[in-house]
Amino acid sequence: MQSFDLVRAPDQRTAVAEGAASHTAQQGASVRFLAGGTTLVDLMKLGVERPGRVVDINRLGLDDIHKQANGDLFIGATARNSDLAHHPLVRGSYSALSQAILAGASTQLRNAATTAGNLLQRTRCMYFRDLASACNKRAPGSGCPAIAGTNRMLAILGTSEACIATNPSDMAVAMMVYDSVVHIQGVAGDRQIPLMDFYVLPGERPDIENVLEPGDLVTHVTLSSPSTGERSTYLKLRDRASYEFALVSAAVAITLANGAIASARFALGGIGTRPWRVTEAERALVGQAPSDKAFRNAAEICLRGARPQGQNGFKIELARRCIVHAFKQITQ
Ligand SMILES: Cc1cc2nc3c(=O)[nH]c(=O)nc-3n(C[C@H](O)[C@H](O)[C@H](O)COP(=O)(O)OP(=O)(O)OC[C@H]3O[C@@H](n4cnc5c(N)ncnc54)[C@H](O)[C@@H]3O)c2cc1C
Ligand code: SF4
């Protein structure tokens, strides 16, 4: 691993100032915040990340989880994934989030991993993690061997000629359906970004993955309060039952009134270059009776524009079935 300076940020303002010294907050950043370290340290050992300065943010007191006065859920940036998944407010009102977190990684990893770190984890594309391979995300302009190579796990939505890497976070998929907002403290002040707008598509610059600028510190995430009677769940389909990333996953939330769907939200994981949510597909469900036909129609809308590669065409039908099955689980 390349040598680096490790500093402990005494307060948020110092952390932001330290981070601002980097020329980018994206791939190639020379300063990185350290939370649980389960992504960052891993990538530093591989040489994929080479920050000269690592700023430990674990003592900033950003780990609170509580209900705000307006009913929204406040989740601190360094709240551990385990604490979040098992929190009574989350288990009670945000089932899909609790289930999504518990479907990811292992107990030990979840005990260390944090909210912001999870949202900012990097793709598991094997070429990205292998310095001997070309990769436009790691080394812009070098090429994308995944398009003609090993792409079974990779994305079919939101891809470009430059990159087809999947966003691997389970937690982010569930957070999408609760209309989550990411709260950021930056050099120019505080700002809030809906999670729907937080990730950017790869286009010609797959090294840029989100809207963060140098110095931007995620302080917390808020989730809207669920409607009365809302049910939600997370279904993750993968090659083995634990310790495995999703081939396809679906977070779904629904309310019923008089036998019809009053509201529905859903997002998909494992198939997009970012967690995938299409509000038009959700609107198509409203007013319908819950049925395979209605759910399958919503799936078709959500999957419009899917572009399979050599090995991952099976994900289209798998995603349809995942959506239908997840909705049936909570409506039957
Ligand atoms: C073997 C293995 C299996 C896994 N399986 C799964 C799985 O099935 N599903 C899944 O979803 N995930 C899985 N993961 C990924 C895991 O969830 C992430 O590694 C973890 O959530 C990252 O959180 P962290 O706190 O350790 O982040 P870190 O490694 O500390 O940080 C990650 C990135 O976020 C940045 N960062 C952290 N906090 C902030 C902040 N507050 N503001 C700005 N930037 C910040 C860091 O600088 C770094 O760039 C797995 C990981 C491993 C190693
Ligand atoms: S899919 Fe993206 S991350 Fe994977 S090799 Fe291609 S450019 Fe790199």
What can you see in these coordinates?
The chain has 332 residues and is α+β, with helices and mostly antiparallel strands. It has helices at residues 12-20, 40-46, 81-86, 88-93, 95-102, 107-112, 115-119, 170-177, 279-283, 292-302, 314-331; strands at 5-8, 31-34, 53-56, 65-67, 73-76, 181-186, 189-194, 217-223, 231-237, 248-257, 260-269. Strands 4-5-8-6-7 form a five-stranded antiparallel sheet. Strands 1-3-2 form a three-stranded parallel sheet, covered by helices on one side. A three-stranded antiparallel sheet has the order 9-10-11, with helices on both faces. A hairpin with a 5-residue loop joins β4 and β5 (73-76). The longest helix has 18 residues, at 314-331. The N and C termini lie far apart (52 Å). The site of flavin-adenine dinucleotide has 31 residues, from β2, α2, α6, α7 and α8.
Q: How many DSSP H or I helices?
A: 11
- What integer value in Å does the Rg equal? 19 Å
Which molecules are bound in this entry? Answer: flavin-adenine dinucleotide, iron/sulfur cluster
User: In percent, how much strand structure appears in the residues?
Assistant: 15-25%
* Oligomeric state, counting identical vs distinct chains: single chain
Distance between the termini: 52 Å
Topology at a glance:
Blueprint: E1 5-8, H1 12-20, E2 31-34, H2 40-46, E3 53-56, E4 65-67, E5 73-76, H3 81-86, H4 88-93, H5 95-102, H6 107-112, H7 115-119, H8 170-177, E6 181-186, E7 189-194, E8 217-223, E9 231-237, E10 248-257, E11 260-269, H9 279-283, H10 292-302, H11 314-331
Parallel strand pairs: 1-3, 2-3
Antiparallel strand pairs: 4-5, 5-8, 6-7, 6-8, 9-10, 10-11
Bound molecules: flavin-adenine dinucleotide and iron/sulfur cluster (SF4).
